[in-house]
Write a structure and sequence with these properties.
The complex is a heterodimer of chains A (about 270) and B (about 300). Chain A has helices spanning about 5-20, 55-95, 95-110, 115-125, 130-155, 160-165, 170-205, 220-225, 235-260. By secondary structure, chain A is an all-alpha fold. Chain A has a single domain, classed as Orthogonal Bundle (MetI-like fold), CATH 1.10.3720. In chain A, helix 2 (about 55-95) packs antiparallel against helix 7 (about 170-205), helix 3 runs antiparallel to helix 5 (about 130-155) and helix 5 runs antiparallel to helix 7 (about 170-205). Chain B has helices spanning about 1-30, 35-40, 45-55, 60-75, 85-120, 125-140, 145-160, 170-200, 205-210, 215-235, 240-255, 260-265, 270-300. The two termini of chain B are about 20 Å apart. The chains are: A mainly alpha (about 270), B mainly alpha (about 300). Chains A and B meet through helix 3, helix 4, helix 5, helix 7 and helix 8 of A and helix 1, helix 7, helix 8, helix 11 and helix 12 of B.
């Protein structure tokens, strides 16, 4: 991995460790309201200032980070798993199975991401799980595509032929011979997708369709305070910066993983 | 070409089924009884029964779905709960604004993005390349609702150069278009760079050089021509990202398009509006994708119909 990739990984780890250890920090009180100290500029007490209810913005950002990172990572892993199943079946069996599964994949890919996510988020009660469902519903299809391509090139390999000749069952070939070959490759794609999922999660919670209050999220912190853009810009700047930084680091990490393994994936 | 077209159109049917089923279940999942909300809680039971029959609420769910489809086919998307205006006519009214915004954003993103991508590819592994690559990955990592607010803070609230929000002439268009163009700019610059590098690596470029063809001619005739096809495709296919971005950008800048319309619908839980926008939005998106896809197939003779594995 190149230096930028390593740096990105370090930043991600830092954000993740800070966020996930936040509940154990005594100074971290995302919910404590103090109406005497609303809209305060950054100070020693509140390094990132306070919001309209006098809550500490740094604490809220750290709690929001837990939500964002958990949603993006679990959505990426779930999409990977579903895509893996679809891609393996489609690529290995070929023929009618392939045609049917890929038609379905095409179908899902032809929905505009955010609109479908919005439709799903409105359909289910809003919350963390709904966001994950919305992202996975759109996200798995591109994984299926990529895995299928990988399987197509692998299944002609000699060792697969040998496995067949020695009488391995289909299930065994797929699970023990093809899947392990696909996984490192797919995990790189997973890494590349997380940055985008961070943005989708942020957009949905900005639109009010994400995790619901009192749980703080980066997107909802921005939408709640956009009216105070001139009087208290830090309330909007800080959470947005975190979204951008996290997405950027995941994207850079994904790029460097892709280059490291010499994969040709667009995006 | 014909087979391909038929296949694409056949694919449209399950797609529209899927989206209408989704929106139908959305309408069904809503809390509250539509009949009661029409006549009020204290209406006589006979009246309630009569209206229930009239609007078909007594039929089973499959029949209701058919009825719903028939309504949609007649362009009947219902009325907004709040304004009582027809959703479809409002969408048609607001769509040109969204289109204007998307085109303006493309006008910024396309020349700048492809230009930077070309530059980056030609200066591969130099400082220029690194800076451009860093900028483009940043561009696609910044959420538009944040960059939009920052641009607004700086250019309208501090410098007072552009109005912060509203729909109108050129001055109103600048900031939202700029905001919307940022992620597309990043994507385009990256894809152009990869594509040009791929083309530069092709054997026919080496051949052209060996034949002593002038470098200008190689660049213009060979590289540009071959790189352009995938780039043009991406520009077209990326249109969906403008649709996505428009929801957020229009909301921030108060631009009176489909994006803001659906956003207001979401906030007020104005379901006919949400449903109408999702259906029309998906339809437009799919239609554009189809056109681009066909364009791609007719532009690139290497792609054979039915056997492309992207």
């Amino acid at each position: 991995m190149n230096t930028t990739g390593k740096a990105a990984l370090l930043v991600i780890l830092f954000i993740a460790v800070m966020s996930f250890s936040a509940p154990f920090m005594p100074w971290c009180n995302p919910g404590s309201i103090n109406l005497d100290r609303i809209k305060e500029a950054p100070s020693l007490d509140h390094p990132l200032g306070t919001d309209t209810k006098g809550r500490d913005i740094l604490s809220r950002i750290l709690y929001g980070g837990r939500v964002s990172i958990s949603i993006a990572v679990s959505a990426a892993l779930l999409s990977t798993m579903i895509g893996l199943v679809f891609g393996l079946c489609s690529g290995y069996f070929g023929g009618k199975v392939d045609a049917l599964l890929m038609a379905f994949v095409d179908l899902v890919l032809s929905f505009p991401t955010l609109l479908l996510a919005i439709a799903i988020s409105v359909l289910f009660p809003p919350g963390i799980y709904t966001v994950v469902i919305a992202i996975v519903a759109v996200g798995w299809a591109s994984f299926a595509r990529i895995v299928r391509g990988q399987v197509l090139s692998l299944k002609e390999a000699n060792y697969i032929e040998a496995a067949k000749a020695t009488g391995c069952s289909t299930g065994r070939i797929i699970l023990r011979h093809l899947m392990p070959q696909c996984i490192p490759f797919v995990l790189v794609v997973t890494g590349m997708k997380i940055g985008g999922y961070i943005l989708v999660e942020a957009s949905l919670s900005f639109l009010g369709l994400g995790a619901q209050p009192p749980m703080p999220t980066w997107g909802s912190m921005i939408s709640a305070h956009r009216a105070y853009l001139t009087s208290a810009p830090w309330m909007v700047v800080a959470p947005g910066f975190m979204i951008a930084l996290t997405a950027l680091c995941f994207n850079v990490l994904g790029d460097s993983l892709r280059d490291r393994y010499g994969l040709k994936i667009r995006g | 070409m014909k087979d391909y077209l038929i296949k694409k159109i056949l694919l449209l049917i399950p797609l529209l089924f899927g989206i209408t089923l989704l929106t139908f279940s959305l309408a069904k999942a809503l809390p509250g009884d539509p009949v009661l909300s029409m006549v009020g809680e204290r209406a006589q039971p006979e009246v309630i029964e009569k209206i229930r029959k009239e609007i078909g609420a007594d039929k089973n769910i499959v029949e209701q779905y058919y009825g719903y489809l028939a309504l949609l086919l007649h362009g009947e998307f219902g009325r907004s709960y709040y304004t009582n205006r027809e959703v479809l006519s409002d969408i048609l009214l607001k769509f040109p604004n969204t289109l204007k915004l998307a085109l303006a954003a493309m006008l910024i993103a396309v020349p700048l993005g492809t230009g930077l991508g070309f530059l980056s590819a030609y200066r591969k592994d130099t400082i220029t390349d690194r800076v451009i690559s860093a900028l483009s990955v940043t561009g696609l990592s910044i959420p538009v609702f944040w960059s939009g607010l920052l641009l607004m803070l700086f250019f309208s609230l501090k410098l007072r150069m552009f109005p912060p929000s509203g729909t109108g002439d050129f001055r109103f268009l600048v900031l939202p278009a700029l905001t919307l163009s940022l992620p597309a700019l990043g994507t385009l610059a990256r894809i152009t760079r990869t594509t040009v590098l791929e083309v530069l690596d092709m054997p026919f470029i080496k051949t052209a050089r060996a034949m002593g063809i002038r470098e200008v001619r190689i660049q213009a005739g060979h590289v540009l021509k071959n790189a352009l096809i995938p780039i043009v495709t991406v520009i077209g296919l990326d249109f969906g990202s403008y649709l996505n971005g428009a929801v957020l950008t229009e909301t921030i800048f108060g631009w009176d398009g489909i994006g803001r319309f659906i956003m207001e619908g979401i906030i007020k839980r104005d379901y006919p509006v949400i449903v109408g926008c999702v259906i029309i939005g998906t339809f437009v998106f799919v239609a554009i994708n189809m056109v681009v896809d066909m364009l791609y197939h007719s532009l690139d003779p290497r792609v054979r119909f039915g056997e492309h594995n992207r």
